[in-house]
Design goal:
Oligomer: single chain
Radius of gyration: 23 Å
Distance between the termini: 81 Å
CATH architecture of the largest domain: Beta Barrel
Shape: globular
Number of strands: 15
Number of domains: 2
Strand order of the largest sheet: 1-2-3-4-5-6-7-8
CATH topology of the largest domain: Lipocalin
CATH class of the largest domain: Mainly Beta
Structural class: alpha+beta
Order of helices and strands: HEHEEEHHEEEEEEHHEEEEE
């Protein structure tokens, strides 16, 4: 005997469907994908990509994005994900229950062309875009973080998301103290800077990321000169507001300002080239150091 389903039994209420959906998803990903509670992790804003996905560079747009997202951090603790931004009065963008999905890049972006665009952008950053990615997304689709935080993608040691076709990178903090490592009570450059683990040293190229919380660009420059003996041998002790270039101790040095919030310094000495990019963001100054030893 076949039981006929009455009309009022044939459809679950929207509320029941929602509960069923969450229960099934939670069960499936906990056991099939191994998304068990994790220790606390913190990612801090690192940079905006040097070009957008269409291989265009709009310096003003990048500067705006740096100002908008420079104070962003992401915290995951067990099954809760929190996005913070220091430019907000409350400091918190969203706080949600989340899951992680292990996916291929193609299955996530649905387009080989889009995957290729990401690969080219990552290549321009000296990085490799992997075939497999991890997606951080809301457990309940109706209670998700607002765009562009609705989906965060973990690639190597970074979380990424996109805005205005640029990719924004957040790097994993090595300690739960996060910003404490940038304490200005210590006179040690290592407390402000760390090697960029996403860039492997090859052909003599290395990358370092620094952050000077609460300082102006000029004060950050002074602090850097004070703590970096190599740079202090060639760079000016007192920073001016004008573009200039000069030679000192057989080295060539150039200073180029882009507005009042971005300074690019290049130092060439004995075949080695160092680039120092100072960028004013909402809660301080970021400094990116790239060194090409030329071998």
């Amino acid at each position: 005997m076949i039981r006929r389903i009455k009309k009022n039994e044939s459809h679950l209420s929207s509320f029941a469907k929602k509960i069923l959906h969450i229960t099934i998803i939670s069960y499936f990903f906990q056991y099939a994908w191994g998304t068990t509670p994790q220790e606390e992790k913190i990612w801090l804003f690192n940079k905006v990509s040097n070009m957008n996905l269409f291989e265009k560079d709009d310096r003003e747009m990048r500067l705006q994005l740096n100002k908008l997202y420079g104070g962003v951090s992401v915290n995951t603790n067990d099954d809760v994900l929190t996005v913070n931004n220091s430019i907000l009065e409350s400091g918190t963008v969203c706080k949600i229950k989340y899951i992680t999905l292990n996916k291929s890049a193609l299955s996530y972006f649905y387009s080989e062309k889009t995957v290729s665009m990401y690969k080219e952008l990552f290549k321009s950053e000296g990085l490799i875009f992997p075939e497999k990615i991890k997606v951080f997304t809301a457990l309940d689709p109706d209670v998700a973080c607002p765009a562009p935080y609705s989906d965060l993608v973990e690639v190597n040691n970074s979380l990424i998301f996109s805005d205005q076709d640029y990719v924004l990178f957040l790097n994993r903090s090595e300690s739960n103290a996060g910003k404490a490592k940038f304490s200005f009570k210590e006179k040690d450059l290592n407390l402000y800077c760390k090697n960029d683990k996403n860039i492997k040293e090859y052909d003599g190229i290395s990358s370092t990321i620094c952050f000077f919380k609460g300082l102006s660009l000029k004060d950050s420059y002074t602090k850097f000169i004070e703590l970096n003996k190599y740079a202090s041998n060639y760079l000016q002790q007192n920073l001016t507001d004008s573009n200039e270039s000069y030679k000192k101790n057989n080295a060539s040095v150039s200073y180029v300002w882009h507005g009042s919030d971005e300074l690019n310094i290049k130092l060439k000495n004995d075949g080695e080239e160092s680039e120092y990019l100072f960028l004013k963001v909402n809660n301080g100054v970021s400094l990116s150091i790239k060194v090409d030893a030329g071998y």
